[in-house]
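Thread title: Can someone regenerate the structure for this chain?

I was given the following input by a collaborator and told the matching structure tokens would be attached. They weren't. Posting the sequence so someone can regenerate them.
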Amino acid sequence: MERKQKTYLVTGGAGFIGSNYILYMFRKYGQEIRIINVDKLTYAGNLENLRAVEKQENYSFVHADICDAEAINKVFEENDIDRVVHFAAESHVDRSIKNPDVFVKTNVLGTLVMLNAAKAAWEIGDNVYKEGKKFLHVSTDEVYGSLGDEGFFYETTPYDPHSPYSASKASSDMLVKSYMDTYKFPANITNTSNNYGPYQFPEKLIPLIINNALQGKKLPVYGDGKNVRDWLYVEDHAKGIDMVQEKGKLFETYNIGGHNEKQNIEIIHIILDTLREMLPDNDPRKANVSESLITYVEDRKGHDRRYAIAPDKIIKEIGWYPETKFEDGIKLTIKWFFENEDWMNRITSGDYQKYYEEMYKH
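Best answer:
Regenerated them for you:
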């Protein structure tokens, strides 16, 4: 008996983590899966990230807002969705401080729309669902708040969000949990640490520092630069999500962390050292790469001091572990940006938003 091609609905698949996940899934499963990518194409969505797969018969793109219940319900009505992987979210803390309304709408209301659509499509009786269906809600370690110098975030750590972004993600997590508890809705939640790797939008620390250093621009550092983050290579995250979908126990939360704690200022020094090592002596950009570019700026409001995830549960129950050491991952990331300078230039110039503009922008 021929095995049914599994259909994935991925929200926010044109973003950094979503596009890396889609590319990883096609590399792993090929024709065994079909992926429908739903994305609103905000500033952080870039269909260029998916040029390698856009013409495949088992990939399709739907230009829609996850807050648009009619559009989302239509996707479920027209397709037999087996898996939902819900990435779509506003995610930049600085932007949430300036405009929290957008974060609440997208991250909370959008998640509610996705839950309701999947529930309506999959439910065959009171709290009974079609076999094999599963919803995975992708969240962040920022919902847990800030750690001191010691300790780790566990799945049992109480939520203590400090920014409008993390508060909106905490709210969406609670919505998913309520559907699991009340309706026995087949879902999992994953909370991840800071991701890095190819296709990351350059407002984030690592691509920002790489791009600015190569151009001899200032390297902004919040406060004293000693805020600590746990860094996870994006492909390791994609592997973790896939493994939770296939092996995770229903209704459980899994923390996906990198065991790569670094201070922000330490990250900047590592990037500068790696750039100097990788750039040939005859490359004029090498002269730009200097610690003199480091510029300390006023600290972010509500800036959490330290995040660190203990991925013990996912390692023990599922067998996932962070495979990529930071010293290797940062080299892979810088190499990718070297080899894809045109991509970065289109991002920083805004030209990337013209890609498919006539077809999808209104």
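The two ends are 45 Å apart (CA to CA).
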